[in-house]
Specification:
mainly alpha
Length: 116
């Protein structure tokens, strides 16, 4: 996208919402938007009308929303970890299933290779 922006293949980046553009955090998001501006490319959020490269408070609003998006990503990660811990505590096996399940410690017999 930035390569096309630098070549002026478009003059406006329309994104659904800021959290769909970037969840990297305040500094990185502002750097992305500044980079677009330096290429002469404007930006606008489809669902958040206050995100417009022409507004006077654009940087403040963007910083706040980017922080909220990053915090949501952290919360999701914490919820997933908590859910995995609960599952482990209940004795559930987490991860990919075994390719075979040894019976009485004899995996070859289970696969029907050496059974008599």
């Amino acid at each position: 996208m930035f390569k096309d922006a630098s070549q002026r293949k478009f003059d406006l980046l329309l994104f659904w919402a800021l959290d769909r553009l970037s969840r990297e955090g305040v500094l990185e998001t502002l750097q992305h938007l500044s980079r677009l501006t330096s290429y002469g490319v404007g930006y606008r959020s489809f669902t958040e009308q206050y995100f417009d490269s022409c507004g006077i408070f654009k940087d403040a609003v963007i910083a706040i929303i980017a922080t909220v998006a990053k915090q949501e990503r952290v919360r999701i990660s914490l919820r997933v970890r908590a859910g995995l811990e609960v599952a482990r505590a209940k004795g559930k096996r987490i991860g990919r299933p075994f390719a075979h399940s040894p019976i009485d410690g004899d995996a070859d017999c289970h696969r029907g290779l050496l059974c008599q």
